[in-house]
Write a structure and sequence with these properties.
The chain has 83 residues and is mainly α. It is built from 4 helices and 2 strands; from the N terminus they run βααβαα.
Length: 83
Amino acid sequence: MTEKRCLTKEEAAAYCGCNTLAAFDSWLQKGLVPKAIPGTNRWDRKAIDAALDRASGLVTDSPAELTPYQRWKAENARKTEAA
């Protein structure tokens, strides 16, 4: 069986190695892990992996490491936030 992609908060906390939900909440506040998928109470396993990769320095958001699509998406997100 394949691993679930959408995780409950408890599953997401356990997946991250947090022993308590309070620890996971702390990680959320610090921006180490992403928020739940909008409109749900579920966390995307791939989004968690990507956030932890960035937090640990395995991957950065530097333009040199982004694909053209990722650069476009990041640029448009900044424009949307500024509006």
